[in-house]
């Protein structure tokens, strides 16, 4: 009997899932599945993260390392050199060498090509894949299966539904074509250069990648008004050095499995010791590299000095970055081993520090930000803030000392909100109201770690409803890196295949017994 799967979201996770599921089927049973991929954006593959936008939005992973297919190292680099006709006309000045940082929209073109190729391969193997351009508003549970309801009144009946929605937006406050307002999502940043007059005063809430993209987009479009970046934590991303990849000896899957077999949990101190041990091994392997220590930094006091030091350090290799990036392969399993009380301490005290270290930026972007700061075109402010509106409708940024500053526009460049209820997702709101999903205390929704089934309000898994990606950050901690998203999507594909085929085998044996 044919089974129907509906994937909500047509970005990187959906490509990795389709590829993993197809390879698991091995072309033998593909004709038994129809898979609908429902994507609200016009293009399939890029998702919101790599949407067609301006070229100043750069990847923070080198061209030679990034790929949508984990088993095909260098696939993006190979695509660039094998298909220059797809991109050189649009990015004539981009150097497609191994160590450059490509524009994110260019990587989006690669993902669009990868989606088409994956679908084509699936069809050749007898699997039906139906792309649908629509926004999913609700998933309704029936006695048998689900109906996936879209904003344009398309209803898809499915046996299984996978939520691969990417980064959720903050609750919408956008006010285009008005004199002032709060913009809840900066992407695509090209819209900001159209909406915001060049003389407007703008506050950017946030200091990581989306905030940096926003500032560079505005300045390269000729913005002349005041721009203030508010880092609520007081930190700013580190700048990516020239180091290559590192193969850890402590932070490995084998070691994690060995630890799990001997003890039920790890303390933060034990994890830090593992990182430091691997860093020592890195320097033993690379004795000529600068032995930059990995220490807890204080919040930034002088932004210009901080940037100057980071830019200088990024001229050479930074060993601790190689060690931290290598944790991508095991970070979800490692997080699962940390004691619950230590997770709380980490999120309260150290998360912002970790992200400032772990989510770095290319040196060329740091140089641009420093230039704006040195010219007086950008201010950097630290500390928690809240945003309100005054009697004239203008946004006001209020700091912990209750000092107020009025702006023409405030841009919320803060990533996904921790609580589903604070997002702009009608789908998540509807699912949560019905109790089909439940919020994870650390953010996003609750899922079973082995099957990716969502956990209902009553604490039980919802057998036919699954979630992968940023919405599972509470469970898996760091889910924003592409390689981690792809790994989870492929794990979900394997788990789903094995569980569904085991269930079919049990049902078949039961029918035979009758």
TrEMBL record:
Q: Which domain of life is it from?
A: Bacteria
Name assigned to this protein:
FAD/NAD(P)-binding protein
Q: Which InterPro entries match?
A: FAD/NAD-bd_sf (IPR036188), HpyO/CreE_NAD-binding (IPR038732), L-asp_N-monooxygenase_NS-form (IPR052189)
Per the database entry, which stretches of residues form a coiled coil? Answer: none
Q: Which residues form the FAD-dependent urate hydroxylase HpyO/Asp monooxygenase CreE-like FAD/NAD(P)-binding domain?
A: 7-167
Organism, by scientific name, is Halomonas salifodinae
Please name the taxonomic classification of the source: Bacteria, Pseudomonadati, Pseudomonadota, Gammaproteobacteria, Oceanospirillales
């Amino acid at each position: 009997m044919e089974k129907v799967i509906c994937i909500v979201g047509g970005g990187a996770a959906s490509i990795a899932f389709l590829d993993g599921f197809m390879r698991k089927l091995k072309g033998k049973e593909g004709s038994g599945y129809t898979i609908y991929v429902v994507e609200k954006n016009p293009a399939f593959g890029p998702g919101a993260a790599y949407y067609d936008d301006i070229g100043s939005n750069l990847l923070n992973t080198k061209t030679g390392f990034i790929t949508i297919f984990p088993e095909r190292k260098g696939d993006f680099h190979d695509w660039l050199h094998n298909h220059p006709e797809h991109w050189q006309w649009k990015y004539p000045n981009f150097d497609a060498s191994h160590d450059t940082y490509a524009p994110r929209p260019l990587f989006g073109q690669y993902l669009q090509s990868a989606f088409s190729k994956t679908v084509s391969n699936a069809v050749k193997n007898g699997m039906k894949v139906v792309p649908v351009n629509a926004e999913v508003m609700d998933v309704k549970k029936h006695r048998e299966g689900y109906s996936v309801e879209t904003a344009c009144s398309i209803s898809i009946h499915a046996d299984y539904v996978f939520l691969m929605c990417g980064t959720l937006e903050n609750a919408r406050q956008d006010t285009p074509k008005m004199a002032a307002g709060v913009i809840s999502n900066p992407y695509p940043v090209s819209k900001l250069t159209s909406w915001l007059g060049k003389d407007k005063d703008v506050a950017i809430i946030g200091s990581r990648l989306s905030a940096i993209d926003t500032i560079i987009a505005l300045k390269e479009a000729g913005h002349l008004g005041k721009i203030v970046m508010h880092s609520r934590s007081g930190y700013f991303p580190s700048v990516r050095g020239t180091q290559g990849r590192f193969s850890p000896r402590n932070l490995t899957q084998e070691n994690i499995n060995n630890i799990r077999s001997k003890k039920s949990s790890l303390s933060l101190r034990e994890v830090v010791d593992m990182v430091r041990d691997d860093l020592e091994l890195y320097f033993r392997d690379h004795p000529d590299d600068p032995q930059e220590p990995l220490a807890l930094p204080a919040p930034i006091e002088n932004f210009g000095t901080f940037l100057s030091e980071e830019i200088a350090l990024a001229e050479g290799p930074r060993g601790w970055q190689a060690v931290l990036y290598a944790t991508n392969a095991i970070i979800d399993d490692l997080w699962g081993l940390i004691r619950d009380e230590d997770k709380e301490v980490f999120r309260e005290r150290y998360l912002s520090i970790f992200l400032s270290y772990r989510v770095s930026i290319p040196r060329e972007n740091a140089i641009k930000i420093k230039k704006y700061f040195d010219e007086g075109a950008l201010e950097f402010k630290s500390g928690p803030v809240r945003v309100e509106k005054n009697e004239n409708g203008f946004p006001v940024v209020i700091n912990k000392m209750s000092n107020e500053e009025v702006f023409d526009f405030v841009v919320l460049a803060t990533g996904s909100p921790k609580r589903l209820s604070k997002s702009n997702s009608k789908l998540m709101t509807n699912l949560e109201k019905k109790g089909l999903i439940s919020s994870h205390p650390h953010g996003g929704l609750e899922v079973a770690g082995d099957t990716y089934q969502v956990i209902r309000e009553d604490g039980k898994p919802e057998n036919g409803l699954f979630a992968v990606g940023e919405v599972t950050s509470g469970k898996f901690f760091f889910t924003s890196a592409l390689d981690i998203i792809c790994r989870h999507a492929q794990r979900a594909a394997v788990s789903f295949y094995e569980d569904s085929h085991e269930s079919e085998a049990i049902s078949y044996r039961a029918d035979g017994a009758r």
